[in-house]
Amino acid sequence: TPNDDFCPGLTRKAMGAERAPQSQPCTLRLLVLIPILLSLAASQDWKAERSQDPFEKCMQDPDYEQLLKVVTWGLNRTLKPQRVIVVGAGVAGLVAAKVLSDAGHKVTVLEADNRIGGRIFTYRDQNTGWIGELGAMRMPGSHRILHKLCQRLGLNLTKFTQYDKNTWTEVHQVKLRNYVVEKVPEKLGYALRPQEKGQSPEDIYQMALNQALKDLKALGCRKAMKKFERHTLLEYLLGEGNLSRPAVQLLGDVMSEDGFFYLSFAEALRAHSCLSDRLQYSRIVGGWDLLPRALLSSLSGLVLLNAPVVAMTQGPHDVHVQIDTSPPERNLKVLKADMVLLTASGPAVKRIAFSPPLPRHMQEALRRLHYVPATKVFLSFRRPFWREEHIEGGHSNTDRPSRMIFYPQPREGALLLASYTWSDAAAAFAGLSREEALRLALDDVAALHGPLVRQLWDGTGVVKRWAEDPHSQGGFVVQPPALWQTEKDYWRVPYGRIYFAGEHTAYPHGWVETAVKSALRAAIKINSRKGPASDTEGQGHVHGVAGSPSHDLAKEEGSHPAAQGQFSLQHTTHTRTLY
Ligand SMILES: Cc1cc2nc3c(=O)[nH]c(=O)nc-3n(C[C@H](O)[C@H](O)[C@H](O)COP(=O)(O)OP(=O)(O)OC[C@H]3O[C@@H](n4cnc5c(N)ncnc54)[C@H](O)[C@@H]3O)c2cc1C
Ligand SMILES: *[C@@H]1O[C@H](CO)[C@@H](O)[C@H](O)[C@H]1NC(C)=O
Ligand SMILES: *[C@@H]1O[C@H](CO)[C@@H](O)[C@H](O)[C@H]1NC(C)=O
Ligand SMILES: *[C@@H]1O[C@H](CO)[C@@H](O)[C@H](O)[C@H]1NC(C)=O
């Protein structure tokens, strides 16, 4: 059931006791050396502890271990290879394409953009070589499926420093180091109640969750979550959470919980399970875009860039997928497939013409998807001045427009994530020119670190507003309280030959691993589908494209003779990635 499908990271305990990434075979081997009785006892303790924690129970995906197996061993090899078109070369599309093609299916990936990766997007500064993650940047240790995927692809992970005690919080013109905020948040000027004083912001949040914990115990996971879906986080914190208004304001300002204030409490709970300064995080050495790249180079099949899908027609034997080639031609190319996997975001799916149309419940579910904006502003400095303040990563918080500043770790250069805003806070940067956005972020960095930083800025920077991205048209999904209590598993059921995956189709929204899980689920379904196999045997599984002589990459875009089509074609088995 969808409500059981959480991030398996949160428990109040897990957040306190930082978890190490779980894919550590060495540790496992060491454990074997420990006397068996001891380890048995320990594992039973651990199990008992877990099963007693209702949050943890709610958080588990019932199929998590199965998905982990698929990511480790792959799908069973198919006896009936199908022609599968995957729409979208984000992480969901690429993972599905890889496991399906490994299982023997003929997979073609169609991507609207001129690059792969979607919301995994690494900016690389040509002059300095420094990188900035415009999209995903961290994975919690609990995301074992994603860890396993990275391991299988030979990607190296390293620590992402989420918390550094020497970072700052500045609100109401009061600026304190975060190790002080942890101990005496009332110093920031919030008129806290006596029992709220002297507690870290995280502990205050946990205090408020006590009632939710009782609900989970009393009602059980599904009923409690249904109840939580009906309320906003703000209602909950002030009502059942019994926090004072100043305490709620503190959580909003300091922990950016205000992004969830008017959204569903259930969503806030799921998000918090993966997003807390007390969790351990990793990142991909060399940049997150190595993940989509590694998927691309390990997959046999075609990936077409600049190939936006605009229409889909299902017939009794196959699906016809239309892609729009760029002007001036604007002739639609039609590709045929036995099955289609749609991984584009909600707004992008809404622009596709389906024939026959999507059933009403799916159209409604699509319209109900609530995307929040997310904006990042990077500024490039001549040196990592934060090191002089003994900051080696983590983030500062401010009530100024920039809200959250993330620092590169030592030896990672001086490209500063000067502002990361999402939900309502992202409005501060909406509509600004690039220069205005950079200036605004610089002002806030200067307010926190002193006017000297203006001289250290090298004048360059990057702004990424995901709500304005023509292909994702939003940052990620966070649902408001639901009008109807019918959040069924719409996305897990195919519509004829059309399957769905992507960040918006599973929980917790807004994570890479979620997109991966949804992709694996869809791939399992496609691989085990019974029914007529392809009736058009032979080569050229994608009509009109597979025979094209072009095998060039995006860099040669525009220099193509028109006859070769407007999109770039990648024979991933023959060519290295270049984009
Ligand atoms: C600012 C930001 C920070 C984030 N930080 C993290 C983080 O730290 N950790 C984490 O785990 N997650 C993070 N996330 C979430 C994570 O990036 C996403 O959940 C995940 O990348 C989504 O993958 P996807 O494949 O579902 O969708 P996408 O990556 O959006 O892929 C969909 C693809 O479909 C393509 N497409 C759209 N329409 C069409 C069409 N008509 N035809 C063909 N192709 C089409 C798009 O161009 C895109 O490439 C963050 C997201 C944002 C925006
Ligand atoms: C693979 O096949 C075996 C034996 O038929 C079956 O038990 C298993 O569930 C299959 N695995 C997947 C991922 O479908
Ligand atoms: C991972 O690290 C090893 C050892 O340092 C190195 O040989 C390898 O090239 C790295 N792989 C990637 C993808 O960075
Ligand atoms: C809520 O907090 C107030 C103030 O601390 C306290 O007096 C009251 O008993 C609390 N209510 C509940 C239901 O816990």
TrEMBL record:
<feature type="compositionally biased region" description="Polar residues">
    <location>
        <begin position="565"/>
        <end position="579"/>
    </location>
</feature>
<keyword id="KW-0274">FAD</keyword>
<dbReference type="GO" id="GO:0106329">
    <property type="term" value="F:L-phenylalaine oxidase activity"/>
</dbReference>
<dbReference type="GO" id="GO:0045591">
    <property type="term" value="P:positive regulation of regulatory T cell differentiation"/>
</dbReference>
<dbReference type="GO" id="GO:0006572">
    <property type="term" value="P:L-tyrosine catabolic process"/>
</dbReference>
<keyword id="KW-0964">Secreted</keyword>
<dbReference type="InterPro" id="IPR002937">
    <property type="entry name" value="Amino_oxidase"/>
</dbReference>
<dbReference type="GO" id="GO:0019440">
    <property type="term" value="P:L-tryptophan catabolic process to indole-3-acetate"/>
</dbReference>
<keyword id="KW-1015">Disulfide bond</keyword>
<dbReference type="GO" id="GO:0001772">
    <property type="term" value="C:immunological synapse"/>
</dbReference>
<dbReference type="GO" id="GO:0002841">
    <property type="term" value="P:negative regulation of T cell mediated immune response to tumor cell"/>
</dbReference>
<dbReference type="InterPro" id="IPR050281">
    <property type="entry name" value="Flavin_monoamine_oxidase"/>
</dbReference>
<dbReference type="GO" id="GO:0005576">
    <property type="term" value="C:extracellular region"/>
</dbReference>
<dbReference type="GO" id="GO:0005764">
    <property type="term" value="C:lysosome"/>
</dbReference>
<keyword id="KW-0458">Lysosome</keyword>
<keyword id="KW-0560">Oxidoreductase</keyword>
<dbReference type="GO" id="GO:0001669">
    <property type="term" value="C:acrosomal vesicle"/>
</dbReference>
<dbReference type="GO" id="GO:0042130">
    <property type="term" value="P:negative regulation of T cell proliferation"/>
</dbReference>
<feature type="region of interest" description="Disordered">
    <location>
        <begin position="529"/>
        <end position="579"/>
    </location>
</feature>
<dbReference type="GO" id="GO:0002250">
    <property type="term" value="P:adaptive immune response"/>
</dbReference>
<comment type="pathway">
    <text>Amino-acid degradation; L-tryptophan degradation via pyruvate pathway.</text>
</comment>
<dbReference type="InterPro" id="IPR001613">
    <property type="entry name" value="Flavin_amine_oxidase"/>
</dbReference>
<feature type="signal peptide">
    <location>
        <begin position="1"/>
        <end position="43"/>
    </location>
</feature>
<keyword id="KW-0325">Glycoprotein</keyword>
<keyword id="KW-0285">Flavoprotein</keyword>
<comment type="similarity">
    <text>Belongs to the flavin monoamine oxidase family. FIG1 subfamily.</text>
</comment>
<feature type="binding site">
    <location>
        <position position="138"/>
    </location>
    <ligand>
        <name>substrate</name>
    </ligand>
</feature>
<keyword id="KW-0968">Cytoplasmic vesicle</keyword>
<dbReference type="Pfam" id="PF01593">
    <property type="entry name" value="Amino_oxidase"/>
</dbReference>
<dbReference type="GO" id="GO:0006559">
    <property type="term" value="P:L-phenylalanine catabolic process"/>
</dbReference>
<dbReference type="GO" id="GO:0045944">
    <property type="term" value="P:positive regulation of transcription by RNA polymerase II"/>
</dbReference>
<feature type="domain" description="Amine oxidase">
    <location>
        <begin position="91"/>
        <end position="524"/>
    </location>
</feature>
<dbReference type="InterPro" id="IPR036188">
    <property type="entry name" value="FAD/NAD-bd_sf"/>
</dbReference>
<keyword id="KW-1064">Adaptive immunity</keyword>
<keyword id="KW-0391">Immunity</keyword>
<feature type="binding site">
    <location>
        <begin position="111"/>
        <end position="112"/>
    </location>
    <ligand>
        <name>FAD</name>
    </ligand>
</feature>
<keyword id="KW-0732">Signal</keyword>
<protein>
    <recommendedName>
        <fullName>Amine oxidase</fullName>
        <ecNumber>1.4.3.-</ecNumber>
    </recommendedName>
</protein>
<dbReference type="GO" id="GO:0097225">
    <property type="term" value="C:sperm midpiece"/>
</dbReference>
<feature type="binding site">
    <location>
        <position position="309"/>
    </location>
    <ligand>
        <name>FAD</name>
    </ligand>
</feature>
<feature type="binding site">
    <location>
        <position position="503"/>
    </location>
    <ligand>
        <name>FAD</name>
    </ligand>
</feature>
<feature type="binding site">
    <location>
        <begin position="135"/>
        <end position="138"/>
    </location>
    <ligand>
        <name>FAD</name>
    </ligand>
</feature>
